[in-house]
Design brief:
289 residues; twelve-stranded antiparallel barrel
Length: 289
C-alpha cells in the first residue's frame, strides 16, 4: 500500500517550511517572547500526545496532522517496517480567541472520532528553584462510526469525556518536565457499561540546539479500566519557521486524546521491542491572518 496523498502533502508542507526558514529564520516562540514577556517552558503546544501549557498568541491558528502507523516495526523490510499497512490519522485545527485560551477541533480515522477541547493556562511563576505553569484542558469526543450493532451515531455511549490538569516545570533552561493527571469517561465504547479511568501522564523534553530537541512521554492508568497497556512514546522534534515536526516511536497507534488516554494496543513486555513499537509523526503549523 502506498502512502496516502495526505502523507505526501504534509511532507511537502514541511519542505516548504524549511525553504521559508532560510528567508525568515524566526520561530513563533522567539517572535512572541519579546512582545508578551511570558515564561516559556515547552516550545510546542504538545509533547507527543500530551498537552503542554503553551498556547500561541491571540488570534493565531494551529493546524495539526498526525500519522501513527498501524503495524509494528517488527513486520520487517517486506512491509517497510509497518508503513505499508497504512496509518491511523488525525487532523485538527486550533484557535486562540483570548490570551492563554485555546480551542481545537480534531478528527481521527479510528471510529471516525471527532474531538473538541478547550485549554486554559491560569497560573505561572518565575521564582523558586523551578519556574512553572499550570493549565487545565477538558474535552468531548464523538465516535461517529457505530461499532455496536443497533447503536446509531447519536447514542450516548458513542461520546467520551476527559479532563486534564497540566503542570509544566523548567528544570533547567534546556530541560522541561510535564505532569498531566487526567480522567476519562467511557474508556471503551464497545463495553456493555461506560467505564472511567484515572490517568497520570508524564513527559520531558531536552532542547539541545536552537531548533532540535528530544522528548519522551508516558501515560499510566492509575485506576479504572485500561484498554491495553500503558502508553510510551519517544521521539525527536524539529522547530522551524512556525512548524513543529515530530517523529517518534510508540506502542500506541491511537492519535486522539480520548484514544491514547484509554491505553495502548501494543504491550512492550510481550516479545521483542520492535514487535511492539510503531512509527509516527506529527506536524503542526502556526497560521496568522
Amino acid at each position: 500500500m502506498k502512502w496516502s496523498a495526505i502523507t505526501w502533502s504534509v511532507l511537502i508542507l514541511l519542505a516548504g517550511g524549511l525553504l521559508a526558514q532560510s528567508q525568515r529564520p524566526v520561530t513563533w516562540k522567539s517572535r512572541l517572547a519579546p512582545r508578551t514577556k511570558e515564561l516559556i517552558i515547552f516550545h510546542s503546544t504538545m509533547i507527543g500526545g500530551l498537552p503542554t501549557t503553551e498556547t500561541p498568541g491571540r488570534g493565531a491558528f494551529e493546524f495539526e496532522v498526525t500519522h501513527r502507523f498501524r503495524n509494528a516495526l517488527g513486520t520487517g523490510f517486506d512491509n517497510f517496517y509497518g508503513l505499508d499497512f497504512g496509518a491511523n490519522t488525525r487532523i485538527a485545527l486550533g484557535y486562540v480567541p483570548y490570551p492563554h485560551l485555546m480551542v481545537a477541533l480534531g478528527r481521527s480515522s479510528i471510529f471516525s472520532n471527532f474531538d473538541l477541547w478547550v485549554k486554559y493556562r491560569f497560573l505561572q511563576w518565575r521564582g523558586g528553584p523551578f519556574p512553572g505553569r499550570v493549565a487545565l484542558r477538558g474535552g468531548v469526543a464523538w465516535n461517529t462510526k457505530p461499532v455496536v450493532r443497533g447503536r446509531n451515531r447519536g447514542h450516548p455511549r458513542n461520546f467520551q469525556y476527559y479532563g486534564q490538569a497540566i503542570f509544566n516545570l523548567a528544570l533547567t533552561p534546556h530541560l522541561a518536565l510535564a505532569l498531566v493527571p487526567g480522567w476519562l469517561y467511557n474508556v471503551d465504547i464497545r463495553t456493555p457499561d461506560a467505564e472511567t479511568a484515572t490517568t497520570l501522564g508524564t513527559g520531558a523534553q531536552f532542547y539541545f540546539a536552537r531548533v532540535w530537541s528530544v522528548w519522551a512521554e508516558a501515560v499510566f492508568t492509575l485506576s479504572g479500566l485500561r484498554d491495553g497497556a500503558n502508553a510510551l512514546t519517544f521521539g525527536l522534534e524539529l522547530e522551524t519557521g512556525g512548524h513543529f515536526f515530530k517523529i517518534f516511536l510508540s506502542n500506541s497507534n491511537r492519535p486522539n486524546p480520548s484514544q491514547y488516554l484509554a491505553g495502548a494496543p501494543f504491550h512492550l513486555g510481550d516479545g521483542s521491542l520492535v514487535d511492539n513499537l510503531v512509527f509516527g509523526f506529527t506536524i503542526t503549523r502556526l497560521l496568522h491572518f
